[in-house]
Amino acid sequence: MMFNPSARDAFYPVGAEIPKQKKDAYRCVDAATRRRLQQSKSRLLIVAACACAAFAGIVVRLFFLTVVDYQPRQFKPSVLRTEYYLKRQKILDRNGTEIAMSVPTTDLGINPQLVKNPEEAARNLARILTGVSADEVMRKIGAGGSFQYVKRNVTPHERNDVNWLGYYFLSEANGEKRIYPQGASFSHVLGGVDIDSNGIAGLEKSLGQVLQASDVALSLDATVQEMVRTTLAQSVEKFSAEGGLAVVMDVHTGEVLASVSLPDYDPNMPADGAPDKRFNKATLGSYEFGSVFKLFNTALGLESGAVKPWETIDASEPFKIGRKLIDDYQGQYRPLTVPEILMHSSNIGSVRIAQRVGYQKQRAFLKTLGFYQKLPVNLPERGGTQHPSTQKWADITSANVAFGYGVSITPLHLIAGVAALVNGGYYNVPTFVRDGNAGRPAYRVVSEKTSDALRQMMWAVVNWEMKETDPVAPYAVGGKTGSANLIDPATRKYIKGALRTTFVCAFPMDKPQYAVLVVLENPKRLKETWGFNTAGWNAKPAGLAIVAQIAPYLGVTPQPAFPQADYIARAIASSAAHKKKR
After folding, report:
1. Fewest C-beta in 10 Å: which of 79, 332, 460, 524?
2. 222-258: string of b/e by CB count within 10 Å (b at 16+)?
């Protein structure tokens, strides 16, 4: 092999001593190649120097960040989710407690056109999804098209299990489910929504547009509602009643604090709500209320001047109007003062008062109380009223109305009318929305003088036989009972012995704040009630039990004995004396 002697210059300068072992290798390197190799070496040194400088800069920067300028930072984990605007906002009670709310959910859909093995898909989906059968899935797949719902509002657990199936023909969409945290307590007032969260009953329906934009605060109080519902349910069970209702109202504003109708249902499980459970007795039912109407009859007599509070009216014996005999249930059969007519619930005395007033004024007075039309309340379930026409309103009609027959109204009509009699004489339209009557003034139906007299009489009705040790005695409750025969829907005739019993009251009677109404449907006779099933034995104890429950919560303090007018004291003394003689 031949070597170029000049190759040594590629690695060693001219004249330099080349190691013996390298001489043969460098003989082939010329001067040009040696220069290029030298330039590469220099460039490598420059790159290495830059890398070292950059690394040193990073180290210095990290030193300042982690040591010199160190500040602890809070790191929040990122959550991957899709924002979804809820169609319906919350419904709250008067204190802000949530009684209806919506939560975002997932709807599961399927594209039938993409399903290759329908039987397998139907079997697996039915295994995971509660309430969905394989046959149902097969029908939806067989329906064709590009989309069918498999299940609305699937649970997170179901959604996770379905995702593990890995079916490409399934899809998800944003859904919404309405939740009722209080269960059955507000079922009749709230109503409900359909699968698409559209209101279909109750306040959910009537307030639908408002709920799309904002929360709504009701006049109802969740605590009062639960107290009333529990006490009413106990009475319905005790007397084996077919149902019952109770309402609590602020007498000065018309705001309803509680409204219960039994039987009821859980709106979270609407499929369990049979028609009889969905019927709102408090606002939709229209009934005759019996002797409770004597409150209105007496108020009219006082307001018109036909009778005076201290006046004595002859109730010594029954009498006839046409073919109808006017008689008393457990009558006193003696002259009675006006307070005693209410205390002993005398039909004879009440009809005598109505005769003095005249049926034209009687009819006009009931009209001022709103008894001839539906109430303009927020609920769509509003019952109408039934009353004789002007042409048929004669003496016998007036007599029946005087003790609670011949006119049918809803319980909400009744308690609103009684509230007007005791609050100083002003009528407020009932409302289920907090401050719902703001801007809508009340109107006068009786004078303050009549209201004051009637309050004292109502106090005498409840208290003249009450013991001072009774739990409700210190709250100065005044009210009236009523028992009306039920009507057979088939024959439209009264059923003997089957009663609708009512107790309506207000408290405290010196300055009334709240009214309470209780109605029981066909309560049964018990041994402890001595075989009686009238209101004084069932509806009245239930109403007083409700007062004893809610009065402390509502801030009503016990007070000394209610200041009585002289004629009330005389009426009580007279009734007590006659009771001893008998």
Report:
1. 79
2. bbbbbbbbebbbebbebbebbbbbbbbbbbbbbbbbb
pLDDT tens for residues 282-315?
999 999 999 999 999 999 999 999 999 989 999 9
The structure's pTM equals 0.83
What is the residue-wise DSSP string for 308-350? Answer: -TT-EE--SS-EEETTEEE--TT---S-EEHHHHHHTT-HHHH
Give the three-class secondary structure for 36. Answer: helix
Interstrand relation of 216-217 and 91-92 (parallel, antiparallel or unpaired):
parallel
Report the run of H or E that residue 148 belongs to, with start and end: strand 148-154
**Block residue for tokens 């996770």:** 160
Q: Which two tokens stand for residue 10?
A: 């590629």
CB 111, CB 146: distance < 8 Å: yes
Q: Does domain 226-581 have CATH number 3.40.710.10?
A: yes
Contacts of 312-319 spanning 24+ positions with Cβ under 8 A: 312/336, 312/337, 313/337, 313/338, 313/341, 313/349, 313/352, 313/353, 314/352, 315/341, 315/346, 315/348, 315/349, 315/352, 317/348, 318/348, 319/348
pLDDT bucket at 581, cuts 50 / 70 / 90: low
Domain ranges of the chain: 91-218, 226-581
DSSP-derived letter for residue 223 is H
Amino acid identity of 301? G
Task: Report how far residue 545's alpha carbon sits from residue 554's, in angstroms, rounded to the nearest whole number.
Answer: 15
Name the percent of the chain lying above pLDDT 90. Answer: 71
- Mean pLDDT of all residues in 522-534: 95
| Class in CATH terms, 91-218 | alpha beta
